[in-house]
Amino acid sequence: MPFIYLISRTELIVYISAFRKGEWMVRKKKISSGKFLEIHLGYLLFRFSTFWVKCLPVESLASYGEKLGLLAFHLLRGWRRVAFANLNLAFGKEKNKEEIHWICRELFKNIVRDMLEIYRCPDFKDSYFKTLVRFEGEEHLEHALNQGKGVIALSAHLGNFPLMGARLAAEGYPSSVVTRDPENPKIAKAITSLRDAVGIETISDEPRMACVSRCFKALKENRILLLHIDQNAPITEAWVDFFGYLVPTFKGPVLFSIRTGAPILPMFMKRNSDNLHKITIHPPFTLNITGNAEQDITSNTARLTKLIEAAIREYPEQWLWIYRRFKRARDIGTGERIFPKR
Hints:
- There is one protein chain.
- This protein is of the alpha/beta class.
- It has helices at residues 9-21, 33-54, 61-75, 77-91, 97-120, 126-132, 138-145, 162-170, 185-197, 208-220, 252-260, 293-314; strands spanning 25-26, 29-30, 133-136, 151-155, 175-179, 200-204, 224-228, 238-242, 245-249, 264-271, 277-281, 330-331.
- The strands form 3 sheets. Strands 3-11-10-4-7-5-6 form a 7-stranded mixed sheet. The chain has a 3-stranded antiparallel sheet with strand order 8-9-12.
- It is globular.
């Protein structure tokens, strides 16, 4: 199939019109020609990669992912450098260089495996999808939903986490996920379309007030609200211990639970050695409430973060170490920054 078929007729007209008029517009905002090309070339690369993946047999995705992931490990030096830095912060006193190297190499394999599966997810047959991703502890979810207050699914960037929402939706559970959009607006729109195709409602984390309002609405409608609190957060969030460092951490799950009474269910995704997946749904998390609002929010967020850390420690090669989670980290004893402010 010619490459031009990867873009629609409307998109082609936009590109030609922009070049003729010298106008560079994205979301009704004028941008530089360099930025315009970066956005659209990035999008075309994204479209080409998704097109290529759709040509692969479903059974071969894990095999291709392993090979391409190993190639990515050697070629993507920037990501590899960040991953090694994070791994040394977390495990430098516990694991030797060979163990950290193995975790990092396996991480890249898993990232590409995950991406290939995500691209093909809308094409999965129900029977195949239910074999690929199985539940453990589903009774906790059903009991929580029966309360009619919605469910706050506390999760992390562990395993093929985007498949969690898709698998919940495939099982008939109404699901919403709070996400941070990619910088490329066209890719962000395409990823949202992928979620729509598998029945997941996307809630962008910006603008903040609109995000909060939609989260409350999702819980009121008795939906599952998927929240990942293992990303780098603003300094106004709760500072808690994560792998021995103080890091700002989103306190949304605790705040939503206190305000609505919705139970918090920790849920984690794991890739097994046979490349099948398991979603482990834990019993409801019990909040410790003392009456001191600020202290309660911080202490419960700290406890949730320790649950995430425990899951990561169990499967360290499946967490997203290429993300700058320790960007604002502080020494837990002195409170001084680990990395100087740029």
